[in-house]
Amino acid sequence: MADLTTRIGALVLKNPIMPASGTFSEELAEVFDLDCLGAHVTKTITQGKRAGNPVPRVCEVNGAMLNSIGIPSKGAEWFLQNTVPFYADYDAPLVISISANSADEFARFAEEVSVPGVAAIEVNISCPNVEDHGKAFAMRPGPTGDVIRKMRSATDLPLWAKLSPNTGEVVEVAQAAEAAGADALVTANTMLAMAIDSATGRARLGNVMGGLSGPALKPITLRMTYQCARAVSIPVIGCGGISTVDDVLEYLIAGARAVQVGTATFISPTTMPRLIGELEQELEERGLTSVDALIGSVDIADEAITLAEYA
Amino acid sequence: MPASLCVVSDSAPTAAPVRHSVNEVDCRVKAHEWVNGQYRLLTLSAPCSVLDCQPGQFFHLLCPQTDRFHPYLRRPMSIYSCNREKGELTFLYKVAGEGTGALAGLETGDVLNIVGPLGQGFEIRPEWRRPLLIARGVGLATLAPLAQECARLRLPLTAICSARAPDLLMSTNLFRSFGAEVITVTDTEGNSDTESLTPLIEGLIRSRGIDAFFTCGSARLMRMLQEIGARHGIGGQVALEQHMACGIGMCQACVRPFRREDGAVNLRVCREGPVFDLQEVL
After folding, report:
1. How many Cβ atoms sit within 10 Å of the Cβ of residue B154?
2. Å from A278 to nearest chain B CA?
3. Which chain A residues are within 8 Å of B249, Cβ to Cβ?
4. How far apart are the C-alpha atoms of A310 and A113, rounded to whole Å?
5. For B1, nearest residue in chain A (alpha carbons)
6. Does position A174 have pLDDT exceeding 90, yes or no?
7. Superfamily for B23-118?
8. Cα(A204)–Cα(A182) distance, rounded to whole angstroms?
9. Active site residue A59
10. B245 and A67: CB-CB below 8 Å?
11. Which neighbouring-strand residues pair with B131?
12. Over the stretch A17-39, which tens digit does the pLDDT of each residue have?
């Protein structure tokens, strides 16, 4: 049997498949045994309660989904009393995704949620609709470094920085997160997008703009994964448009040490257990004994690398 | 994966809704026919793992990709009937958009992937002995299993079926087969507006002793029933619709505001619903 384990810093995951934040919750336990997953990643929570955005909060476009859910949150207290204990029954490490309005708030919140049962914190610095007309910390290296640095001094838990595709400075943001003490990068969150109903002239999301996810996003986030894996020495976790085992393989080959599956779970709630089985089968068919053998193995001519760096 | 037992529940129907396990399964299309010019009846062969359903629950359907239609997200659809002995699940739907357009292309023998059963169904409280069902359009499909449940509980039932035109009235014979007294109203006959329906319903409260309302398919009818219910101290339930993504409760896309003790709260139509207390809907 092929060895599916993968290492994200100090954490050993039994396989590289985990959910993307916002597309996973306790309810999925009614569909399959959540312990088959490499890790559990919660929906982003905020310190205080938040109502979220007006409906419609989702709409579909060709091969993709737009969402502007708006991070509805029951707050830290509810989360620590209800959600963390729920996941204590599972062996898979619990990664909690948090968001805040400033670097200082991020740091205070990180300290508050650093409790037994939490294995790592995913830092949502990339949600496009949180504040300031869709601008986010992860758009620029400076604010990214600030947030991670302040959180680093507030908690000993591993910090996973979830990057945004809404930036022209992918490598600089990745390196800023690494330099500030991030333990891993997640590439990436949704891409800021919009849809209009041509018949009515109305924006199709209540919040006007929202994040694009699903297969249409994959080439962009795969590219980011490749760029980041080459530019930093911390692990990179691929995320964006994964629904088939070939998608998983592409991310691993691009340099990801693990992947997150998001929107595909909405289309088929059994996607993640299916991918774990298919990945194992795929490795065996290729005569590979471990996931490690694939990671970063992308075959690129020297000439192409030069071109990519100028792109 | 825990599978639901394929047995008829002998628990009291008035007990709190039981949380069933959710399954994703491929079902073969057994029959698929037009009921009238707009509605189609889809019959699936379904495994018993998904046939432990409550009236008012729904399934999330993976509508096929066709030349013309490319739905990406699943489509929620309330159960029209669920038969464990026959291994059958049926859906009555209006061909309206991308998802139902694609669904309409399914032929006998094709496969449809479904997830469910999902959500909280209707609850017939013990004190409700004389229910009135009021449905419009596709809401008639949602209330059909409830009518069957009322028949099983031997509750005398009155149903008001509303549609744009007489040829779009559906399920009236089905409701009658469950022993319901059926009253039809249509836009073309001019008796389906709330001004006409309010005195009709208040008359039924007096003559039949109606003590519960169940409705689906029209916001206008729901508001009217909230008013009549508040005036006469009559409770009830409503099955709601909302744009969904996951259908299971993960994504928070399908929320609506509801009145609860501590003020207005957003609840998920897919998870806390789709059936809600009539007076809680804001």
Report:
1. 8
2. 18
3. 25, 27
4. 41
5. A32
6. yes
7. Translation factors (2.40.30.10)
8. 36
9. no
10. yes
11. B212
12. 999 999 999 999 999 999 999 99
